[in-house]
C-alpha cells in the first residue's frame, strides 16, 4: 500500500505531498514538530506531546492551526490511512507561505500543517535494547532555546551523522563546561557511581522530553533515588548504567560511550526495568 500524507487540509499520496517553495519551514526552518509513538494504531503520551506542541507554537508566536480535537482527528486518520499498527506519526507546523523576508508575514497568514505516519516494528528496538547500543560525545553547537521543538535541526543532524560514521546509535552533546546536555534526538540518563538516577534538569538547554517526564514519574514510583542534575562525560563513563529516552526509542540502554564500556558492558537492571514499565504504560494509555 502506498503511503498517505496530510498537507494543509487534504490527504495526498506521499509522493505527491508538497508545500510551496516559499513555505517558511523550508526557507527559514520557521516551524515546530512533534512525534507520537503508535501502539496498536493508537497514540502514546497523547496529551504530553499535544501540550508541548502548543507550547512550542506559542513560544515562536505561530498561530495554533486548529483545535486539539480537530488535530487529534487528523493524526488518527493519517495513522489509519497508512495502516500503521506499530510506528510513528509526525506533525510539522510552520509559519506558512509568504514572500521570503525575515520578519513575520502579514497577520492572518495561515500556518502550514503536514502530517505523516510510518510503520516501525517494535521488535527492532527490542533487539537493540536487549544488547545495548553505543553512544559517542559531540560538541553542543545548538541555539539557546533547545526547549522549543523546532525544525531547525542541522546541529542535531551533524551529531547523529557523526555517531553513524563511528558505528554508534546516538551522540550525546557536550556543553562548554564539559557537561552532557542531551542526545541529538534523545534525553540522556545515567545511574551514577552512588546508584542515583540522574538526568539533566529541564532548563532551556534541553528539550523537555515527554518520554523523559513519564520515565521520571515511573522511577519515583519504583522508589529510585533521582537527581535532576547535569553530569560530565567522565561521570557518564564511570556510571553503573547509561541510557537514553525518546518517543521512538522509549528507554534504550547505552553500553559504551566513546568506546569506553559502561558498567559490565551490558544493559543494566534499572534501564531494563524502566523500559518494561514504560512500554506497558504506553500500550495501556494510548488513545
Features:
287 residues; alpha+beta; D-amino Acid Aminotransferase, Chain A, domain 1; D-amino Acid Aminotransferase, Chain A, domain 2; 2 domains; nine-stranded mixed beta sheet; six-stranded antiparallel beta sheet; 15 strands; 32% helix; 28% strand; globular; Class-IV_PLP-Dep_Aminotrnsfr; branched-chain-amino-acid transaminase activity; BCAT-like_C
Task: Tell me what you see in this structure.
It is a single chain. Strands 7, 8, 9, 10, 11, 12, 13, 14 and 15 form a nine-stranded mixed β-sheet that branches. A six-stranded antiparallel β-sheet has the order 2-1-6-5-3-4. The chain is of the alpha+beta class and 287 residues long. It has two domains: 4-120, D-amino Acid Aminotransferase, Chain A, domain 1, CATH 3.30.470; 125-285, Alpha-Beta Barrel (D-amino Acid Aminotransferase, Chain A, domain 2). Helix 5 (154-165) links the parallel strand 7 and strand 8 (170-174). The protein starts with a strand and ends with a helix. The model has no long low-confidence stretch (mean pLDDT 97). 32% of the residues lie in helices and 28% in strands. It catalyses: L-isoleucine + 2-oxoglutarate = (S)-3-methyl-2-oxopentanoate + L-glutamate; L-leucine + 2-oxoglutarate = 4-methyl-2-oxopentanoate + L-glutamate; L-valine + 2-oxoglutarate = 3-methyl-2-oxobutanoate + L-glutamate. Acts on leucine, isoleucine and valine. Keywords: Amino-acid biosynthesis, Aminotransferase, Branched-chain amino acid biosynthesis, Pyridoxal phosphate, Transferase. InterPro entries: Aminotrans_IV, Aminotransferase-like, BCAT-like_C, BCAT-like_N, Class-IV_PLP-Dep_Aminotrnsfr.
